[in-house]
């Protein structure tokens, strides 16, 4: 029998990618969305997804959408400037709904919880030593899941990943880089161009979410899912420029003062300043635990991921 799953945050890169992965596994997927027209744009090419209008801040709306669902994939996010006031509260509503409806909750984590890397390859045992406001908020959010499990038996999985790139990753940073490459404009990076880094193709992230969500093996577990391999921003941007065929120049802002200056005019840049350490120091994860549990580790080579993202960018942004 087909299982039924709810996606919260469908109109975001990770929400759509998770829905796509589930549908490809012949699962029944419903998405709770505020804006049906926007959601329909995201749903193009996904046959069989059921869109339900509602609000992720409303317990009643989530519980209604969760009817007969075994899993809640929590892919909602709020803009950086609203993390302090809204991120924990929003998650809390979904946790309560999942407890009440006895659904498993799958949560996409990120590397913010670790702070600066203390290991050559960061595994799940790395200390949660965040020094930033956003890192501490992410630690609290993960602790909310652990507490809900201990106190109310909530089943959960945390899938921790690096930065996303790919189709429907629209955050004003990576989408702009791909658009600029197709227009021959400058590719602007924040942080060091030669610092070892990793990025995960969004559909690999969605596949990892689906695999952990569908299996009891993922219950009460935290998994690191890295990018395809270690790279640098320079290599990544050069490959984008090469495939776009427009010879875009590459530049970076790697001085905290300049990012802080940009923050006077741009609230996103202001929030980005405290995360600059991730763009100036090496933090590479190992996905061995995930591979051991699921006999696979979704990993699209950068060349292929960039090609698919450029194709999507052309079609989506015309």
Report what the structure shows:
The protein is α/β, with parallel strands linked by helices. It has a domain at 4-165 and 199-227 and 285-300: NAD(P)-binding Rossmann-like Domain (Rossmann fold), CATH 3.40.50. 44% of the residues lie in helices and 17% in strands. The chain contains 13 helices and 13 strands. The strands form four sheets. Strands 3-2-1-4-5-6-11 form a seven-stranded parallel β-sheet, with helices on both faces. Strands 7-10 form a two-stranded parallel sheet. β4, α4 and β5 (104-110) form a beta-alpha-beta unit. The longest helix is centred in the middle third of the chain and has 20 residues, at 133-152.
Give the secondary structure arrangement, pairings included:
Blueprint (H helix, E strand, L loop, with lengths): L3 E5 L4 H12 L3 E6 L2 H8 L6 E4 L5 H7 L5 E4 L8 H18 L3 E7 L22 H20 L3 E6 L1 E3 L8 H10 L3 E4 L5 E2 L1 E3 H13 L6 E4 L6 E2 H12 L5 E4 L2 H8 L3 H6 L4 H4 L7 H7 L7 H16 L1
Parallel strand pairs: 1-2, 1-4, 2-3, 4-5, 5-6, 6-11, 7-10, 8-13
Antiparallel strand pairs: 9-12
Helix pairs in contact: 1-7, 3-4, 4-5, 6-8, 6-13, 8-13
> Mind describing the biggest β-sheet?
7 strands, parallel
Gyration radius, rounded = 19 Å
CATH fold descriptor of the domain at 4-165 and 199-227 and 285-300: Rossmann fold
- The low-confidence parts are none
**What distance lies between the first and last C-alpha atoms, to the nearest angstrom?**
40 Å
Strands side by side in the biggest sheet: 3-2-1-4-5-6-11
Number of strand segments: 13
Secondary structure class reads: alpha/beta
**SS summary, helix count:** 13
């Amino acid at each position: 029998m087909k299982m039924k799953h709810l996606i919260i945050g469908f109109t975001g890169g990770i929400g759509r990618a998770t829905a796509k992965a589930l549908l490809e596994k012949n699962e029944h997927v419903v998405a709770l969305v505020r804006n049906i027209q926007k959601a329909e744009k995201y749903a193009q090419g996904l046959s069989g997804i059921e869109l339900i209008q509602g609000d992720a801040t409303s317990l009643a709306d989530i519980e209604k959408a969760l009817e007969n669902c075994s899993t809640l994939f929590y892919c909602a996010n709020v803009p950086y400037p609203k993390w302090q006031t809204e991120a924990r509260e929003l998650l809390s509503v979904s946790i309560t709904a999942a407890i009440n409806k006895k659904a498993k909750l799958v949560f996409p984590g990120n590397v913010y919880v670790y702070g600066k890397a203390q290991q050559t390859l960061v595994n799940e045992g790395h200390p949660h030593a965040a020094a930033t406001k956003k890192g501490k908020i992410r630690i609290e959010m993960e602790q909310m899941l652990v507490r809900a499990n201990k106190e109310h038996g909530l089943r959960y999985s945390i899938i921790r990943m690096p930065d996303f790139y790919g189709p429907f990753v629209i955050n004003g940073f990576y989408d702009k880089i791909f658009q600029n490459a197709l227009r021959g404009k400058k590719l602007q990076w924040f942080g060091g161009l030669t610092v070892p880094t990793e990025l995960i193709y969004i559909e690999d992230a969605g596949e990892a979410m689906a695999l952990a969500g569908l299996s009891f093996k993922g219950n009460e577990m935290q998994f690191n899912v890295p990018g395809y391999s270690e790279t640098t921003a320079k290599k990544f941007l050069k490959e984008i420029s090469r495939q776009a065929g427009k010879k875009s120049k590459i530049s970076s802002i790697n001085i905290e003062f300049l990012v802080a200056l940009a923050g006077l005019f741009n609230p996103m840049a202001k929030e980005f300043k405290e995360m600059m350490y991730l763009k100036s120091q090496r933090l590479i994860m190992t996905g061995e635990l995930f591979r051991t549990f699921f006999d696979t580790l979704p990993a699209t080579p950068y060349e292929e991921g960039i090609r698919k993202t450029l194709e999507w960018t052309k079609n989506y942004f015309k």
